[in-house]
């Protein structure tokens, strides 16, 4: 299982995408995220949050925390777009979404 900083289980991996290169793709995706994080300045709330002490960014539309209408998150859009366009990250996300 995957656990947060408090030891709470937040996901269980039960399977893996087809193909022999999954481990390599996961490693490349991880390295891409690390490179992007190192080249980005984060606010304290993006580094220390309820899920743990690691960088996090929001992607897409949100409606909450005092907003009166849906808004598109503007912080780190360049980083988000580079990550979303990465084929290895797309593969991981597609598998998680059952594509």
Write structural notes for this entry.
This protein is α+β, with helices and mostly antiparallel strands and 99 residues long. It has one domain (19-96). It is 39% helix and 13% strand. It has a two-stranded antiparallel sheet with strand order 1-2. A hairpin with a 5-residue loop joins strand 1 and strand 2 (9-11). The longest helix is centred in the N-terminal third of the chain and has 17 residues, at 22-38. The two termini are 22 Å apart.
Question: Concise description?
Answer:
The chain is of the alpha+beta class and 99 residues long.
Comma- or semicolon-separated keywords:
two-stranded antiparallel ribbon; 6 strands; alpha+beta; 99 residues
Strand content: 5-15%
Element-level helix/strand string: EEHHEEEEHH
Terminus-to-terminus distance: 22 Å
Please state the structural category: alpha+beta
Helix content: 25-40%
Count of domain modules = 1
Question: What is the strand and helix layout of this fold?
Answer:
Elements lengths: L1 E2 L5 E3 L10 H17 L5 H4 E2 L2 E2 L7 E2 L8 E2 L4 H8 L2 H10 L3
Antiparallel strand pairs: 1-2, 3-4, 5-6
Helix pairs in contact: 1-4
């Amino acid at each position: 299982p995957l656990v947060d900083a408090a030891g709470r289980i937040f996901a269980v991996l039960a399977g893996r995408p087809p193909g022999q290169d999954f481990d390599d793709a996961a490693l490349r995706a991880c390295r891409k995220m690390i490179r992007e994080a190192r080249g980005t300045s984060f606010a304290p709330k993006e580094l220390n949050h309820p899920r743990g002490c690691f960088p996090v960014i929001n992607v897409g539309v949100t409606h909450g925390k005092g907003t009166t209408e849906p808004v598109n998150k503007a912080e780190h859009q360049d980083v988000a777009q580079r990550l979303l366009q990465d084929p290895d990250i797309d593969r991981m996300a597609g598998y998680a979404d059952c594509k």
